Amino acid sequence: MSPIRPEMLDALQHTPLFQGLKREEVSRILEHARPTRVETDAYFFRQAEPAGRLYILLNGQIKVTQLTPDGQQVVMRMINPLELFGCVAALSGGEYPASAQATKDCEALCLYDRDIHKLMQIYPSMAVNAFQIMVKRTHELQDRYRELATECVERRLAHALLRLMQQSSHREGDLIVLDTPLARQDLAEMIGSTLYTVSRILSQWESHQLIVAGREKISLAEPEQLQRIAEAQVFSADLKKAPLGEA
Q1: Which of 54, 103, 153, 239 has its Cα between 20 and 30 A from that of 227?
Q2: 3-state secondary structure of 175
């Protein structure tokens, strides 16, 4: 793995863990990081393994999955470059609550918990940042569990697409293209549903011109309508009664 390029170091300086730290401070912290390569479909770590490392993804993509007590696999989160993962477990001790699997060939930086604790004493703002990250991730997990327990599949799918849009997307003309390659099975696991149900809903939304779906690619044409579905203000069946864009 090649050394961190200056532009990558500049980008890392503005990630949540290093927010507020000077460039030279980030550089000194990353001297303790170990470069890690993981090939497509391989794992950085698996659920229930002892947690002692956190990672910063440089290139590639990762899906974080959790196996429920009844044996169902749920995709909890997609990790994109410059995002942190494994941090909550590594900083709090214990076991990894989920697995991190590469969906592409990945390059990452690994920091061991023993080094992190020492660095946090030297750079207190790093400790504050880590605490804020842990709180945010805990809230995100609580929201996901609430959705799975209380919301219908259509609302959960709308929430998932909107989250992916906020995490990583770009605009092409009138469409917002999700940068995360997604098979329909991934979406089904993300919302705790079946491939058949997700395919049916996506086809329905595509017929109403809310989305454009291709092979592992989804673009949003009407995110406002998806937001209304997510908030239970309207359902797909009701969209037949009025042209798109009308309340």
Answers
A1: 103
A2: strand
The pLDDT, as a whole number, for residue 3 is 59
Q: How far apart are the first and last CA of the chain?
A: 53
Provide the token pair at 134: 């842990």
CB neighbours (10 Å) of residue 72?
A: 10
Domain over 6-149 is classified CATH 3.40.50.300: no
Q: One-letter amino acid identity for 21?
A: L
Instruction: Please choose, from the candidates 156, 146, 147, the residue with its C-alpha nearest in 3D space to the C-alpha of residue 229.
Output: 156
Q: Do 152-241 and 6-149 fall under one CATH topology?
A: no
**CA distances (Å), origin 177, targets 26, 125, 139, 224:** 32, 35, 26, 15
- Our CA angle for 181, 186, 187, nearest 5°, is 95
Where are any strands of DSSP class E within the chain? Answer: 34-38, 43-45, 53-59, 62-67, 73-79, 84-85, 99-102, 106-112, 169-172, 175-178, 211-214, 217-220
Q: How confident is the model at residue 236 (pLDDT cuts 50, 70, 90)?
A: low
Task: Tell me: pLDDT of 247 over 70.
Answer: no
Q: Where are the alpha helices (DSSP H) in 44-194?
A: 87-92, 113-122, 124-150, 153-167, 184-191
Residue 143 has a pLDDT of: 83
- Domain 152-241: give its CATH code: 1.10.10.10
